[in-house]
C-alpha cells in the first residue's frame, strides 16, 4: 500500500510540531478506523455534507468504503484517507471520474482536530495532479455550498475558477443551499505546476 507524505505542515497552537501527515488509499478493511474517525468529527463534517449520515455504524462504514472500492475497480471514482500522526483525520475523493469524457469531481472532508494545517489543499493537489498528468483528465470540478467558506478557500488555493452558482439546488437538513461550481482545466493545471517547479 502506498503512502504519500503531505508535509511540512502549517503549525497550530495545539500541534506538537513534529507531526507527519500521509495520504493513503481508504479501503474496506479500514472500516473500524473510518467509523471511529467519523464519530470524532460527525457534527463538524456533517455541517455541509451528508457523509456522517451515510456512515452511521460499522456495516454502513464498510459499505461506503466498498462502494468506492467498486468505483475504483470500475475506474469511476476513488477514495483516499488523510492520516495525521498515524490517525485518520479526513479524506479526499473523486466523487465522479470519467476518463473517456476527461472530467472528474473532487471532494473532501476533515475532522475539527486537523483543521488549519493545509491538509485538504495538499491532498487535493496530489490527486488532481494524478488525474491531469497521469490520466489526462481535462476538467476537474469542485462543487461546494456557498456557505462553506473553508471549502471555497480550498478551491481558490487550488487555482480554480468559479464557473457559477446553482441557486438553491441542494436541499440538506431542511435548508436549500446555493451550490458553487469551481473548476480547473488540464492546461491551466499544467501551467501552474510548471510555474511552481520553476520557482523552486
UniProtKB/TrEMBL annotation:
<protein>
    <submittedName>
        <fullName>GNAT family N-acetyltransferase</fullName>
    </submittedName>
</protein>
<feature type="domain" description="N-acetyltransferase">
    <location>
        <begin position="21"/>
        <end position="182"/>
    </location>
</feature>
<dbReference type="GO" id="GO:0005737">
    <property type="term" value="C:cytoplasm"/>
</dbReference>
<dbReference type="InterPro" id="IPR016181">
    <property type="entry name" value="Acyl_CoA_acyltransferase"/>
</dbReference>
<dbReference type="InterPro" id="IPR051908">
    <property type="entry name" value="Ribosomal_N-acetyltransferase"/>
</dbReference>
<dbReference type="InterPro" id="IPR000182">
    <property type="entry name" value="GNAT_dom"/>
</dbReference>
<keyword id="KW-0808">Transferase</keyword>
<dbReference type="Pfam" id="PF13302">
    <property type="entry name" value="Acetyltransf_3"/>
</dbReference>
<dbReference type="GO" id="GO:0008999">
    <property type="term" value="F:protein-N-terminal-alanine acetyltransferase activity"/>
</dbReference>
<dbReference type="GO" id="GO:1990189">
    <property type="term" value="F:protein N-terminal-serine acetyltransferase activity"/>
</dbReference>
Amino acid at each position: 500500500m502506498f503512502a504519500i507524505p503531505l508535509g511540512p505542515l502549517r503549525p497550530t497552537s495545539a500541534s506538537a510540531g513534529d507531526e507527519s501527515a500521509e495520504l493513503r488509499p481508504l479501503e474496506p478493511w479500514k472500516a473500524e478506523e473510518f467509523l471511529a474517525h467519523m464519530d470524532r468529527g460527525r457534527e463538524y463534517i456533517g455541517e455541509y455534507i451528508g457523509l456522517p449520515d451515510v456512515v452511521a455504524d460499522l456495516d454502513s462504514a464498510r459499505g461506503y468504503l466498498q462502494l468506492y472500492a467498486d468505483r475504483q475497480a470500475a475506474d469511476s471514482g476513488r477514495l483516499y484517507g488523510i492520516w495525521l500522526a498515524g490517525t485518520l483525520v479526513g479524506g479526499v475523493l473523486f466523487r465522479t471520474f470519467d476518463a473517456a469524457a476527461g472530467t472528474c469531481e473532487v471532494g473532501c472532508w476533515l475532522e475539527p482536530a486537523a483543521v488549519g494545517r493545509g491538509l485538504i489543499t495538499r491532498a487535493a493537489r496530489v490527486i488532481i495532479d494524478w488525474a491531469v498528468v497521469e490520466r489526462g483528465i481535462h476538467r476537474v470540478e469542485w462543487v461546494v455550498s456557498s456557505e462553506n467558506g473553508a471549502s471555497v478557500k480550498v478551491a481558490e488555493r487550488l487555482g480554480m475558477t468559479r464557473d457559477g452558482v446553482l441557486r438553491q439546488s441542494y436541499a440538506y437538513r431542511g435548508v436549500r443551499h446555493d451550490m458553487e461550481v469551481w473548476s480547473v482545466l488540464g492546461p491551466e493545471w499544467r501551467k501552474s505546476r510548471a510555474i511552481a517547479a520553476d520557482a523552486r
